[in-house]
Write a structure and sequence with these properties.
2 domains, 11 helices, about 10% strand, alpha/beta, TIM Barrel
């Protein structure tokens, strides 16, 4: 009997020791296993050891399993014109006295080039591009058209909605005689002041009037006042327009102190290869000087081409 009692105590002690050993083994196994992933995969061990990337969630998606398929992020929306800069620029050039193309800052050249805007042609060609702005009729456009026809020169006329409404016969004559008619907006606003939809409305109204009158479409735009922004360049390009600035102009919408001679001399003193010439058709001085300007420019070896030529012949060199 005493011997059986001693055996029973030894068995009891062994059983208690086994239970304690199992409990401690489970505890340490739990503490040493990697967390947040599949404990049996190398991928989860790597994920646990690597700190989360900056601006990334602390745990991988899909329940924290690093070797599980991940959801692909949605593609970012394409940039819109609403996100572009609307900083207003006024067109300006720095003239020189040696018949070279005027200077324009490099950042402005790059901006205009990005949106296919033109202000000058090739510096290697003795070519001139004659353009007129038409906000209203002052009685001189018929004479200008007569001079152009007599000299075999084609020009571009940028018209407002008011001009198309009030001078339909002159607009039809421009088209019939082979000139380009461009858009100068319905109401002559500064484009950076307008929303995208307002810009579209300003252009579409002139387009509709012109198409109803001639059956032709417009593809060239002269921004009113020469004011623009990156946003307006992008919006108008998206609408199919080439913005056309200039490399030679003067204060000619009012009578000049020197009259037609001043108009003539200003143009001739500043002629250069690829010049895009801006004249206002409301000017009597311009109308009276135009024949001399054309004849003497030709005598100096210049030829006159159109904006269609500017875009097709000098793409990449004509764009600012």
């Amino acid at each position: 009997m005493p011997k059986k009692k001693k055996d029973w105590k030894r068995y009891l002690a062994a059983g208690i020791f086994a239970v304690v050993a199992l409990a401690l083994g489970g505890y340490f196994a739990h503490k040493l296993a990697p967390q947040g992933g599949d404990a049996g995969s190398a991928a989860s061990l790597t994920q646990t050891a690597r700190p989360p990337a900056q601006n990334s969630p602390a745990q991988p998606p899909n329940g924290g399993f690093a070797n599980a398929p991940r959801e692909q992020p949605s593609s970012p929306s394409p940039p819109t014109t609403h996100s572009l800069s609307n900083t207003r620029y006024g067109w300006g050039i720095k003239r020189n006295s040696n018949h070279q193309q005027p200077e324009v800052p490099g950042n402005i050249r790059a901006l205009l080039s990005r949106y296919d805007a033109y202000w000058v042609g090739s510096p290697a060609e003795k070519v001139l591009y004659l353009t007129f702005d038409e906000g209203y009729e002052n009685g001189f456009t018929p004479k200008i058209l007569d001079v152009l026809k007599a000299n075999g020169v084609k020009a571009a006329f940028f018209v407002t909605g008011h001009y198309v409404k009030t001078q339909p016969e002159l607009v039809k004559r421009m088209v019939a005689e082979g000139h380009i008619v461009g858009n100068h907006t319905m109401n002559h606003p500064s484009l950076p002041d307008l929303s995208n939809e307002e810009i579209k409305k300003e252009l579409r109204e002139v387009e509709d009037l012109f198409y109803g009158l001639t059956g032709q479409k417009m593809r060239y735009l002269r921004p009113p006042k020469g004011e623009y922004s990156e946003r307006t360049l992008a919006v108008t390009r998206d609408l199919g327009y080439y913005n056309i600035f200039w490399s030679l102009a003067m204060v000619d919408w009012v009578p000049m102190p020197g009259g037609p001679q001043e108009a003539y001399q200003t143009v001739m003193d500043n002629l250069h290869n690829g010049a895009v010439i801006l004249l206002h058709a409301v000017s009597r001085d311009n109308a009276e000087a135009l024949d001399r300007i054309i004849r003497d420019a030709k005598a100096q070896g210049y030829t006159f081409k159109t904006l269609d030529d500017l875009v097709s012949d000098h793409r990449g060199t004509g764009a600012a």
